[in-house]
Amino acid sequence: MGDAPARVGAADAASAALDRVFEAFYRQRPVTATFTGLHQHDGALPDWSPAALGAQAEELRALRRELEGAGRVPDADVRAFPGDVDLALADAALEIALAEHESGHFVHRNPSLWTGEAIFGVLSLVTRDFAPLAERLASAEARLGAIPAFLAQASQTMASSPLDWKMKARQDCDAAVPLFAQTLPAWVRDEVAQGHAPGIDAERWARVSVAASEAFTAFATWLAVPDMASAGIATSWFGRGKPKGLADIGPTGESAPQILLELLVRRGHWVTTPLSELLDEATAALAEARATLETMAAPHGGWPAVQEQLAEQHPSPPQYLARFQETWDACRAAAEAHDLVTWPDAPLRYVPFPAHTRDAAPKLYYLHYRSPAPFDPVGVFDYVVAPLDGLTGEEVTARLRQWNDSVITLNHVVHHGAIGHHVQNHHAYRGASRIGRVAAVDAACRLSMFTGGSLAEGWACYVCDLMEEIGFLTPLDAIAQQHTRVRIAARAVADLRLHTGRASIPSITWHYEDQAFMSRAAARGEAIRNSMYPGAAVMYWLGTREIHRLRAEIRRREGARFSMRRFHDRFLSYGAIPVALISKLMLAEEARS
Question: 453-469 and 538-558 are packed helices; what angle lies between their axes, rounded to 10 degrees?
Fold first, then answer.
């Protein structure tokens, strides 16, 4: 009894320390706050000026000291859930943020982080119906007004950037200029005229939006991306060798420091295996996955022939949008019939891209499934898909071949909209871990917290395997899923090679073409994203394999008592925290029971 007040006092101190971490986290990342459903910063963009970044780093260091004083234990000693876990993961988030700042790899070099934050700062307010439109448009006007000064900060903060990163940011600018100059102002005028946004001055809103568009034009000019043809750089630069003219653009400098990758793996993914060993394991996994793919595809004429057969199996134009919902319903029915997991009350519908963002979306990091905000009102969630209207006959056929039945099933239903991300997110939102509720929220360019990645992506990849196990996939779908396993392993190898100094963007591009059967354009895009975000690509492989390992071990220990639903519900109850940490906690619980 005498220890009770001390325990209560320690819990209060820990809760207060976490309160201050979250307050600072969302104040420093106002766009992430909006996506999370916390709206006190909806009119602001982050301050990434040199002085502000320095002050923010000092605040993060002070918060780490406060967590230490509140009872944070070393990662190896974490036992109690959610108490020890939340303090440790909050400290990990702070240490990772500081390491990113000190590495010079992120806001100091990556212009896409700047364009993404500015663009999605506005889109987060005009594509989500969490409040009356007039209220959201007022906040959007404030963010639009902040864009010119925000983008101007880049000239003070950013050092030189790799050409590939500049080209990606230039593409963002190309989408943002007409979006803010024409499309959004026209949409706002129409909404105001229909009486949907009382109190909004549509012409003033348009002037502010046009000024933001002009700021993107100026930012694109400042990036000074050279014309690829005039620089003498052929597309082969992204493939098999060093091109003529590469020296004219200087070193690419695309990889992050290895020490940063080590930290991201150790504290972000909770994996202590040395990077060299992980690379060996991922390389072996890739070889095994490729061999299995070749065996599975051989009776059908090989993987290219399977791709053609998959493309031919698609809905007709009148069936297109309905096919998504039909497949979603079938996925839920199969999961429930096999008693796989408790399906939350989280309705979802598939709808075309909103008209006011449709033209810009293909050029942006515009996710079809962007996680519901955990703190916004619950309603029917809109999963956006590419529409068919406005396309010619040949264009319709090309889109249907691209969005074929297998893509709809594996990507847009199982992985994202159904038993994958959507089910996982809603389990997390009800969980006991404060970090686990918010870590996997999709922000402007990446997840809210790095520590949520192995769970979010590991689970979504794992359930594709799970649905294959219960017979939900067609034989051709199963081959496509095997190709996904190849791609997951190839991404892990690429991430580990690139950020340990063993590879560059051109060699990783060729790696994807040769090892994962990607097209040149897809391979190059993947390699560039790998270079921007160290430790992100490996999390798919780490998370998926650890869930399979954990399930096998729990099944071994429980024997005839093992239940898929109980295992999956228990696993998801921890929220979006590292899979390796969940494994440690669950196995310790098993040992005590």
Answer: 60
